[in-house]
Amino acid sequence: MEIQFPAPFLWGGALAANQAEGAYQEDGKGLSTSDLQPAGIFGPVVARQPGDFNIKDIAIDFYHRYPEDIALFAEMGFTCLRVSVAWSRIFPQGDELLPNEAGLAWYDKLFDELARYNIQPLVTLSHYEMPWGLVKNYGGWANRQVIGFFERYARAVFSRYRHKVKLWLTFNEINMSLHAPLTGVGLENDPSPTEIYQAIHHQLVASGLAVKACHSLIPQGRIGNMLLGGLLYPLSCKPEDVFAALQENRRWLFFGDVQCRGDYPGYMKRYFREQGISLQTEPSDAVALRYTVDFVSFSYYMSGCATADASEAQKRRGNILDMVPNPHLSSSEWGWQIDPIGLRTLLNTLWDRYQKPLFIVENGLGAQDRPDCDGHIHDDYRIRYINDHLVQVWEAINDGVEVLGYTYWGPIDLVSASKAEMSKRYGFIYVDRQQDGSGTLARRRKKSFYWYRDVINSRGATLKR
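User: That's the sequence. What structure does it adopt?
Assistant: Structure tokens below.
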């Protein structure tokens, strides 16, 4: 049977403001948490000094070069581009009463440029950054006041772009706060589990209020959550390993349970009791949580294993989660295990659990792409990776899963999140910028550029099973 994706399926790519835009102090933008983490989301906070270097300050200069980049995306046939709004462009310190007009105006231009090519924007409200002023002056999401500041921000952008943006996401990879609490919820100084879950609670309440605001201000709009899809298998068929995998998967699925079902699941209430975690809540919180998302979006790069036997748990860092390596899988240059069938498994798992439309908003392969003597980049390894994952997406659709679309992570080379590397390239488009900041920033099509163009234009018919 020939592969053919449904006609409404959205094809495209995904970017984040702090990894692509640059212009970190232009047009009134305030400092964000990302601006003070030059080594990436796991790195320490480093105070800014005159003349210091953070590769994200310029990144790939998408802020000034977006017309050129969007034209390239259109050439590939994109029907969707996932971007994020930098919160500190709109509210530089986070607690202002009125938004920054220059910041709002830039995103107007971005969305208008996308509209020229009939590319639908999918917009994340908070993607691995928040205004540094909210961390410095309020203690980040530990402070209930930040809920109101986020709601003000969300309402400001919903009101401004209600005629231009119909698809929204609340928090990028919301479950990553368990592993990188500064990036996720603005907590410094090695916070305790209680402090982390209290901040997460405030963020979940804010997510519900954002859903409510979106439905009120953009009646034709849809808003989803965004999970880091950290699928774990049992390392063996021992019942203890099977249950360990169940428990580990619940650590990230819990976020989706709250955002899709409107309440804390019983297993988390037990976990809080047994760990001595007591959340400070208000009656209005339960009401806010009942504003559930319209669809579930997620990232998927790799899977891993879980085991109850600590002596076998030789963990390696993979994306944000620590995972026991799967002995049956190969790995990328960065040690991320490659598991296309895992994507089909995850799609079916989320569909069975929530019965809500799903959107794959990140999936990709980072590699050290090296131009040949003629300047060409033959990234067949990336083509194989995407081909094999998209075949499994098609299989899931045939399983009955409703999949809205696929936005490949990093359609153009950008600064990686975990360690702020330019050498870890994901794009279909090469950007001439190196880790030391050198390079012309010129764009160049890779072999995968033309391959992905053909996949989109054929609605998947050119994929190889």
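The longest strand covers residues 120-126.
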